[in-house]
Write a structure and sequence with these properties.
A six-stranded mixed beta sheet has the order 3-2-1-4-6-5. Strands 8-7-9-10 form a four-stranded antiparallel beta sheet, with no helix packed on it. It is about 35% helix and about 15% strand.
């Protein structure tokens, strides 16, 4: 007699859970949107959305909160991938927020537009009346992320209060909101960085080339290697030099650090990630080094 094995792999279980979350939100909310930066987590999330509704197209738009200080390779990838899928792209511009007087650009050596994204994001959610925003956050990233529910409630001011979140029993999610409120949804909550890379390998997903080892002019600041670009405000005491690096995460180029690495292939990156004991944000995000509560403070203001 032929024997059938119905055991699922870890990636199969994670994929099924994420697809179920995406479908549930698409069914319960009127205007969901997927936040897409061109980074590896949002690339995986876009792939899950594609699978969730195949062969129909993805039934909601994707939105990029654009600081204007992006890596060109990532923007090129973003535009190409969205065009391939035929998905509507909404670009919320931090530069527009500055020009309209909604936010004031920071000055000084460590100036960054990262925090300014909060206002731009909230304005875009209100303008387009999006009531659910899919984000690529994972609970393994840092402490504030670990407090998030899968369906994370935001009040009418876009603020997150960890004490005012709905219980999530098994796979039951409370999707009821009043007008003006919205939720952030994190289908990748139970994934780890290594899961993301394993899934990218299994699905054969293309990534922006900065995720792999390449030569780049960088300089050191606060123990991190930042790209030598005009808006990084490199000082005279921060000499630039060429190094073989790659990026573990993608964000505002003024505060996203590279790591020295010779990992030029998926297998080499996965081997490197499996051996590391430092989270990607702890190693590569200057804005999260301000204090242990930096991310939580931004989330309470309405950040991703």
């Amino acid at each position: 007699m032929q024997r059938c094995d119905y055991l699922l792999s870890q990636l199969d279980v994670l994929e099924a859970e994420s697809i179920q979350i995406i479908r549930e939100v698409a069914a319960e909310f009127e205007r969901p949107v997927l936040l897409f930066s061109g980074g590896k987590d949002s690339i995986v999330m876009l792939r899950l959305a594609e699978k969730a509704f195949w062969p129909a197209p993805i039934p909601f738009p994707v939105m990029h909160v654009d600081t204007g200080h992006n890596f060109p390779e990532v923007i090129d990838y973003r535009d190409r991938r969205v065009a391939e899928l035929g998905v509507r792209l909404v670009v919320a511009s931090v530069q527009d927020s500055i020009d309209q007087g909604r936010v004031v650009e920071e000055t000084g050596r460590r100036a960054s537009r990262n925090r300014l994204q909060t206002t731009t994001l909230l304005d875009a959610l209100e303008e387009h009346q999006f009531d659910a925003a899919f984000g690529g956050a994972r609970r393994d990233e840092e402490k504030a992320r670990a407090k998030e529910r899968v369906v994370s409630f935001r009040d009418e001011f876009g603020q997150w209060d960890p004490k005012n979140q709905r219980p999530e029993l098994w796979n039951l999610y409370n999707t009821k909101i009043r007008r003006g409120e919205h939720v952030r949804v994190f289908p990748l909550s139970n994934w780890t960085e290594l899961d993301i890379w394993d899934y990218i390998r299994r699905e054969g997903l293309e990534l922006p080339p900065i995720y792999f080892a390449h030569n780049r002019m960088v300089f050191e600041r606060d123990g991190m290697l930042l790209a030598d670009i005009s808006y990084a405000n490199r000082g005279d005491d921060e000499p630039a030099f060429e190094a073989t690096v790659r990026y573990r995460t993608v964000g505002d180029a003024s505060c996203t650090g590279a790591v020295k690495s010779a990992a030029a292939t998926l297998d080499e990156v996965i081997e490197e990630i499996a051996a590391t004991r430092i989270t990607e944000r702890g190693q590569t995000r200057a804005d999260d080094r301000a204090s242990e509560a930096a991310m939580e403070d931004r989330k309470k203001e309405g950040y991703f």
